[in-house]
Write a structure and sequence with these properties.
CATH topology of the largest domain: Rossmann fold
Strand content: 5-15%
Radius of gyration: 30 Å
CATH class of the largest domain: Alpha Beta
Structural class: alpha/beta
CATH architecture of the largest domain: 3-Layer(aba) Sandwich
Number of helices: 23
Length: 750
């Protein structure tokens, strides 16, 4: 997990060396040395992260990883501060004082460069010492680990294995799913068929498939069967050999000895030959690799005898698509409904009471079970914990209030986090960072997908791909998290696009824990404020009670408000005066009515969201934000954009309209904002919504915005139609267009 932070810093350093070389005069070599040192350290961190997941990291290693993470953040701070110094020096000069200004600016630059050179030299020294320490303590040797380990485990049992040995009496609501799968396997077509059972870890896929595989109907129907565990790391040769041996064993025979020396191609040929006359059933359990099925499917002949293959996986992308073949099925196992979830919970907690819940614990039971989100693994684990506690309300309330802590410290619940963590651990680094972002939103919160993906872009988590815009890449990222069952779809619009999403409560516990471990995100709530250590992201929920005035101005890069009911003027002033390196401010729905004039001091600011606020004027200083990319003013009270907005040459997203609640719903109900001439300079714009263009000059300027994908304009008159058509011919990437006339009686000549 620490590798994520370092990986992002390396990417930023590479970008800096390539694109900002002019800022790094005299220190470019030293910055390159930092990048090289971090790349070497990264190999140690990969191994450390792997050991963290299985609880096999020593205290010395934990301390070392923490120091590396903090050093990486320090590097980012130093570079950003230097660029900020240079930006300040390059601002305009006062008339008549050109020579003095030039001397002063040169002196400031020289001083800043001297300071940065000293700091970078110090960073290089620190990184070199930490790398040497890692080598000295053998941190990159997975069997040795570091010194001083007091909590190491020599063996570690995969918690999923327990699911293979659950008795039928211990599960609930499995019969309908079991019978449906059995019917598919036995009664289906004589063509060989593939059925993929898909969903999040802990939902009961293993238990279900094991009960199907052992069912007497399956045993009687098939004469050849095998259960193959694939998991995240596998060797194809070993899997093929194991399959052949299980087939022979099922017929009480010995497999040919020569298979032990065969390579993949020979093993596939052996399998195909053997299965030609067999009615086979094979379970491929726990698949993670998207290419696994493509590699192995050629081993299964289409013999017309009704061969069957069942796959269990957490990712829809891994499952063979039902679009490839009419005989490929995807079975999405649903979570337990509340009634069945309670039944399972009572079975586990009240074993001595024969599953009978005392009336005084019924409401608490419902709260706990709902927290589990229909996940049998979580229900059984938490039920097992509560079965050891006194059956009284006070004791149960204590457990419920400290559940997040229990997940980390209680051995009975650790299996939940381990199983769910497998999915997180399998993510590539860029998706891990994106996924951690979800920890900033409250439990059960429906997250606006557009908001989430633009936050990812602002953070630099998304990299452009050839032939694709950043926005398209972010949609791919979100889709992958959904297909991996890490993110749940909450709302889909009329064209099938996912509009809002959420995270399963148990999954959220895991990422909140990871975020705290990484100091990735700090959460401030009305009844709890956690703000210590180095944190790049601050999520403020319900109320503002975080004393920002006392925090370091070089650390926080993002402030996100969710459900805040009160914001003091001093808090708002601190956000814009003290946090000089801020990149993202998301005040959606916050009760604020102004933005301080010092917003222009936030040179690194890329993202400002004022949706559903009462802000009515944007300061002119916003024109100083040369790195600015996203401005969201939807349903704010801003009615006119300052002409300085036209200086923001990196602006990609501009959405602005306000609701006129003084009139009945009509064409003027959703009011566009006024813009000044010069809008054509914003050639990076991808979305422009919703602006007044009531003259041909402004309409003509829109033709320079060749990158526009979405455009929404209003107040058009009949005579503007021809000019608009001419402009639209130039915007060749346009995907969405909304046009409103000046009145409902006006016909636009198109």
């Amino acid at each position: 997990m620490a590798e994520i932070v370092v990986s992002l810093i390396i990417e930023n350093l590479v970008q800096l060396l390539v694109h900002e070389a002019k800022f790094l005069m005299g220190i470019q070599v030293k910055v390159a040395n930092i990048k090289d040192e971090l790349e070497i350290i990264q190999s140690f961190l990969k191994d450390a992260d792997a050991r963290t997941e299985i609880g096999d990291m020593s205290n010395v290693e934990k301390t070392w990883v923490k120091q590396i993470r903090e050093e990486a953040c320090h590097i980012e701070d130093v570079i950003d501060e230097y660029i900020l110094h240079l930006a300040k020096c390059s601002h305009g000069r006062r008339p008549g004082l050109y020579f003095l200004h030039k001397v002063f600016r040169f002196t400031i630059k020289l001083k800043a460069r001297s300071v940065i050179a000293y700091k970078i030299q110090d960073i290089n020294k620190n990184l070199k010492e930490k790398r040497e320490r890692a080598v000295r303590y053998h941190f990159n040797t997975i069997n040795q680990g570091g010194l001083g380990s007091d909590t190491r485990s020599d063996t570690w049992l995969d918690p999923q294995v327990e699911s293979l040995f659950i008795e039928e009496a211990e599960v609930v609501d499995i019969e309908s799913h079991r019978d449906k799968l059995i019917n598919w396997l036995v009664e289906g077509s004589s063509n060989h068929m593939v059925c993929s059972v898909v969903r999040i870890g802990g939902l009961g896929k293993t238990t279900l498939v094991k009960k199907v595989y052992e069912n007497e109907k399956i045993v009687a129907h098939f004469n050849c069967y095998a259960w193959i565990t694939v998991s995240q790391s596998y060797k194809m040769e070993e899997l093929l050999r194991e399959m052949i041996k299980q087939f022979y064993k099922a017929k009480k025979k010995f497999a040919p000895k020569e298979i032990d020396t065969m390579k993949v191609i020979s093993l596939i040929e052996e399998l195909k030959h053997y299965l030609c006359e067999q009615r086979y059933v094979v379970i491929f359990y726990d698949i993670w690799n998207i290419g696994f099925w493509e590699h192995i499917k050629c081993a299964f002949p289409e013999n017309g005898k009704g061969g069957r293959i069942i796959i269990t996986t957490r990712s829809e992308d891994v499952a063979p698509s039902n679009k490839e073949s009419p005989y490929y099925y995807v079975y999405k196992l649903p979570p337990l409904p509340l009634e069945k979830a309670l039944e399972l919970f009572y079975k586990k907690v009240f074993q001595w009471e024969k599953g009978q819940c005392p009336p005084e614990l019924y409401d608490l039971s419902c709260v706990i079970v709902e927290r589990c989100g229909g996940l049998p693994l979580a229900i059984v684990a938490i039920g097992g914990l509560l079965s050891t506690k006194a059956k009284v309300v006070f004791e149960w309330c204590k457990v419920l209030d400290s559940l997040s802590l229990e997940f980390e410290t209680n051995s009975r619940l650790r299996s939940i986090t381990k199983i769910i963590s497998f999915s997180y651990r399998d993510l590539p680094n860029n998706l891990k960072a994106c996924f951690l972002y979800l920890s900033m939103f409250p439990k059960d919160y429906s997250i606006n997908c557009a908001r989430l993906t633009r936050l990812w872009i602002a953070e630099g988590f998304v990299k452009e791909k050839k032939g694709k815009m950043l926005e398209d890449v972010t949609h791919d990222y979100l889709s992958e998290l959904i297909h991996r069952s890490l993110v749940q779809v909450a709302q889909v619009d009329f064209v099938g696009k996912v509009r809002t999403c959420r995270v399963h409560d148990m999954m959220r516990e895991v990422i909140v824990s990871r975020s705290e471990e990484l100091s990735f995100c700090h959460v401030s709530m009305s009844n709890c404020s956690i703000f210590n250590g180095i944190g790049r992201h601050l999520s403020i929920q319900n109320n503002v009670n975080t004393p920002l005035e006392g925090t370091s101005t070089s650390q926080t890069r993002l402030i996100l408000m969710v459900g805040v009911v009160k914001v003091s003027n001093s808090f708002l002033a601190t956000c814009f005066e003290n946090f000089k390196l801020m990149k993202t401010l998301d005040f959606e729905g916050a009760p604020i009515d102004y933005i301080p004039k010092k917003v222009g001091n936030l040179f690194h600011l890329r993202y400002l969201r004022l949706r559903d606020t009462k802000v009515h004027i944007l300061p002119k200083s916003i024109g100083k934000l040369h790195n600015f990319e996203t401005l969201d003013l939807k349903r704010s009270l801003v009615s006119e954009l300052p002409k300085e907005i036209n200086r923001l040459l990196k602006l990609r997203y501009l959405a602005a309209y306000f609701i006129n609640r003084d009139i009945e719903y009509n064409i003027d109900h959703q009011c566009a904002v006024k813009i000044s001439s010069g809008i054509g300079k914003l050639e990076s714009l991808k979305k422009l919504q919703k602006v007044e263009v009531n003259n041909n000059t402004l309409i003509s300027e829109l033709g320079r915005l060749r990158q526009l994908r979405k455009l929404s304009i209003s107040k058009l008159k009949r005579e503007n139609g021809i000019a608009l058509c001419t402009t639209l011919e130039k915007i060749i990437h346009l995907q969405s267009l909304k046009i409103s006339a000046i009145s409902e009686q006006e016909d636009i000549e198109l």
